[in-house]
Amino acid sequence: MAQKPGIPKGTRDFSAEQIAKRNYIIDTIKNQFELFGFAPIETPSFENYQTLMGKYGEEGDRLIFKILNSGDFLKKVDDQLLTGREIGKITPKISEKALRYDLTVPFARYVVQHQNDLTFPFKRYQIQPVWRADRPQKGRFREFYQCDADVVGSNSLWQDVEFALLYDAVFSRLKVPVSIKINNRKILSGLADLLTEKDKFTEFIVALDKLDKIGKEGVVNEMINKGISQQSINNILPIFDFTGTNKEKIALLRNLLKNSEEGQKGLDELSFVIDNINKLGTQTAEIEFDITLARGLNYYTGSIYEVSAKGVQMGSIGGGGRYDDLTGIFGLKNMSGIGISFGLDRIYLVMEELGLLQEVPVPKPDILFINFGEKEALYSLQAVQTLRKNGVKAELYPDNAKMKKQMTYAHKRNIPFVAMAGTNEMEQQVFTLKNMQSGEQKPVSTEEMFQLLSR
Question: Can you give the pLDDT at residue 80?
């Protein structure tokens, strides 16, 4: 017996109903992207290995799917290297390409490669799948879509304000109640100045970013395990218990970081962004300053965002931030940038749980023509062609099957009308039109049919 086929863990098949719902979310996001002035681009599903590696930190690099070279992929690896089993040295020789981990680094590569053809500031949006070799779980997949918007070529903090408003605009239209958490990496750098181990900044922010997942004790233990001393932890301990309004939290940090120029600059930037968001007003989103928000990616340098849905147990459904030196890794210096991402798959799960996708219609024909035979099918297809040219979704049942089978097909697909034409109808140049909900039948011409269906 043949083995039943399956798909890799962390991937999914999508039904017509699911695709309709996903397209509803994508179209809503795309509409707001364009209202905010962004234009679309696309990049390849895989990039050169060296383009991606080293851009996401140690944890991110580990999750990148590498693609084996075609043919004899071991021919560039000598026996000594194979015997030593040093994966870090072997992998670049057997894998020259990798599936993209996100859309931001490929975008940075795109900007550098096409810089002479772009108008700056350059605003782009991109909606494509990405891949991560992560452990699959609820809301976390190995293949998933990201919906990104980025601006490069401007260091204006008004862009930081606009991205928070963009998040608010999208989720307001999707009717998803959200909290937009915001922080600034310069503030985190100021906190790192309080550590006695200056070389442990990355370990510090990666651990801090897990506070909502593993709690204060878990974060402290992880920091200690990564070589951060108890004295250093004591210096930053107050941040674990910060409460109050955004202004109150900023005031407390002003004092804690009073000797950090970098930290004070981050607080100035954060104050500007939050104050102006408040002046402009959000539609439904709540803006929350979260000092523990770190987003463990190496390229963020200023504002950081993370969006979570209220009332639903789910990870972040959006995130991003400013990356002033990202294009510099590809040779283009002094190109400031900022961008955010919407997690389509998690947004879908959140909306399903909140019952917000129940009314999304599945694409289907407006009318089905019954097939009574070759002559009748040709007669019906002439009407089908006319209706389609005028924007009416019409379909001919492909087989001359029993009437019951064809009507069952229309019923299961929730097709609202059925058209029938036999010898009498063909002679009179009409169709018998049946309303599948009321059961009413009446003779109509193709023109009358169009008028009825296009209402």
Answer: 60
Local structure of 43: helix, strand or coil = coil
Distance between first and last Cα of the chain: 53
The domain spanning residue 375 has which CATH number? 3.40.50.800
Q: Would you state the structure tokens that stand for residue 302, as one six-digit string?
A: 């200023």
Q: How far does CA 24 lie from the centroid of its chain?
A: 14
pTM: 0.87
pLDDT at 79: 64
The answer to whether residues 180 and 207 belong to one domain is yes
Q: Which domain holds residue 448?
A: 367-453
Sign of CA dihedral 384, 388, 391, 395: positive
CA separation for the pair 24, 13 (Å, rounded) = 18
> CATH number, domain at 133?
3.30.930.10
| Contact (CB, 8 A) for 74 and 90 | no
Predicted confidence (pLDDT) per residue in 257-282, tens digit: 999 999 999 999 999 999 999 999 99
Mean pLDDT (the chain, rounded): 91
Question: How far is Cα 334 from Cα 93, in angstroms, rounded to an integer?
Answer: 32
**In this structure, is residue 73 part of a structural domain?**
no
